[in-house]
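Module 6 notes. Inverse folding takes a fixed backbone as the condition and produces residue identities as the prediction. Think of it as a translation problem where the source language is geometry and the target language is the twenty amino acids. Below is one complete input and output pair. Work through it position by position during the lab.
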């Protein structure tokens, strides 16, 4: 392909992607968004409740019913009315006020990749005392922490046109108001206070829209040119996606530096990270398809928590190995001899370590890279669900593989650049000290990343513990694991000067 032809193909791709992605949910494909509008009227409280359910939870809801018929939609409308009636708590002076349903309705609109988005509304009436203090708590879908949630009282702003249009300025920090208190005085609202959990906000940031690929894939007429552009788009978006935050790029880079890895090993680490990312997409898609009631959001919090624990353990082992090697070098400097047992031990360690004398074992490096990039991306998940929805499973799986190849290309390029830069530094005498401390720097960074992921996972699980405290405790535990055994071993050599063999 000539340069002009390639440029034309990319231009056509970006034009098609820009033209086709306007229908994707702006707050993300996983979100369930809430709005409760409360206003007094003729001695009662009128409640208008709205649910805006994005593509992936809508897919779960519709797939649970088999075929989405008008009767099944009406049944679901009634089920949601019960859910809202049970989850929206309204109290007057501590006494619960019953809600009575007046009407309910729902409709769908097209989302990313042709997947539908559900929009549900319900109107309720509550009899309230003329003079009382009212407390409202919204516990509807309380297990879903991401998305927009708001309670609107008379005199307060509602910027979304009842969840039909989200202002761009608020997409990155959506409202999460789930508690409201106000005084009801002769049928009027006074002293209104609305509060929420700001920490539960779900920030959306991406170089490309998650719907760009799925919209190309879902177009009705699949001409050869469109198929070619879609494949090209899958590779290009995978590469761009690899440039976004995450995907274990920091883990990959510092693992390679600390291990003084070869170019071949850099490619293996990048491939391991990409493999984990692709398998995670396929497993999550299978869970969404076969377990329709499965809460995708809870999986992401568990992935973060378990990945953080795995990375922290690997960081601790890496730091421990670096400390042991530094102690050996110090003992050799003072004793000026090496016995046969010590040579055997060094040979044993080098047989399992990455070439270059690194203190990081290669299986641990692969696990570290995979742990950092296992969280699946919404763009690939939407493509998979659109493939299931449109009965184009083979084509959809192929695009996911191409998407992953684009991601692998970026990660491999990063790995090769890191290895080349580290090798260049090692050849400079002025950086000799830097190369000696590289294992400590890399293990420290890996440990810190693991501690941060662990703290984030606990916070997402609602553990209620300070994140800084979790990070500090994790890092102190890692340091103790790495340093204390070495100190105890050093103490034993003071009693036995000839016993310098490091314990295996």
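Target side of the pair, the amino acids:
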């Amino acid at each position: 392909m000539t340069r002009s032809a390639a440029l034309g193909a990319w231009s056509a791709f970006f034009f098609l992607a820009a033209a086709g992605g306007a229908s994707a949910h702006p707050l993300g494909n996983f979100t369930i968004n809430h709005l409760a509008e409360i206003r007094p009227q003729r001695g009662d409280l009128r409640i208008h409740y709205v649910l805006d359910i994005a593509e992936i939870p809508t897919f779960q809801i519709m797939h649970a019913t088999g075929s989405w018929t008008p009767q099944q939609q009406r049944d679901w409308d009634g089920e949601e009315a019960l859910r809202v009636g049970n989850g929206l708590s309204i109290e007057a002076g501590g006494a619960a006020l019953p809600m009575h349903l007046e009407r309910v309705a729902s409709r769908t609109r097209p989302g990313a990749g042709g997947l539908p988005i559900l929009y549900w509304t319900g109107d309720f009436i509550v009899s309230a005392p003329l003079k009382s203090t009212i407390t409202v708590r919204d516990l509807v879908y309380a297990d879903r922490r991401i998305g927009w949630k708001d309670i609107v009282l008379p005199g307060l702003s509602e910027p979304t046109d009842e969840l039909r249009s989200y202002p761009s300025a608020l997409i990155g920090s959506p409202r999460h108001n789930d508690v409201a208190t106000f005084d009801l005085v002769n049928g009027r609202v006074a002293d209104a206070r609305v509060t929420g959990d700001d920490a539960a906000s779900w920030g959306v940031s991406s170089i490309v829209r998650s719907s760009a690929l799925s919209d190309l894939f879902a177009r009705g007429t699949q001409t050869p040119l469109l198929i070619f552009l879609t494949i090209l788009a899958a590779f290009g978006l995978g590469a761009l996606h690899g440039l976004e935050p995450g995907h274990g790029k920091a883990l990959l880079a510092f693992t390679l530096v600390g291990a003084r890895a070869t170019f071949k090993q850099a490619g293996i680490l990048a491939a391991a990270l990409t493999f984990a990312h692709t398998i995670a997409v396929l497993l999550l898609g299978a869970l969404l398809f076969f377990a329709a009631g499965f809460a995708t959001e809870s999986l992401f919090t568990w992935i973060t928590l378990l990945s953080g624990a795995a990375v922290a353990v690997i960081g601790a082992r890496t730091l421990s190995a670096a400390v042991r090697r530094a102690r050996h070098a110090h003992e050799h400097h003072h004793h000026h001899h090496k016995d046969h047992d010590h040579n055997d031990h060094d040979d044993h360690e080098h047989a399992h370590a990455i070439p270059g004398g690194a203190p990081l074992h290669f299986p641990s490096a692969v696990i570290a890279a995979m742990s950092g990039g296992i969280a699946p991306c919404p763009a690939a998940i939407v493509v998979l669900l659109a493939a299931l929805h449109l009965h184009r499973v083979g084509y959809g799986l192929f695009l996911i593989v191409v998407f992953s190849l684009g991601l692998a290309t970026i990660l491999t390029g990063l790995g090769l650049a890191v290895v080349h830069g580290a090798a260049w530094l090692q050849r400079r005498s002025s950086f000799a000290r830097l190369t000696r401390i590289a294992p400590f720097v890399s293990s420290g960074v890996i440990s810190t990343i693991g501690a941060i992921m662990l703290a984030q996972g606990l916070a997402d699980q609602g553990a209620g513990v300070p994140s800084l405290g979790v990070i500090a405790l994790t890092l102190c535990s890692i340091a103790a694991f790495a340093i204390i055994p070495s100190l105890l071993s050093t103490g034993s050599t003071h009693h036995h000067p000839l016993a310098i063999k490091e314990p295996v």
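Reference fact for the lab report: The radius of gyration is 28 Å.
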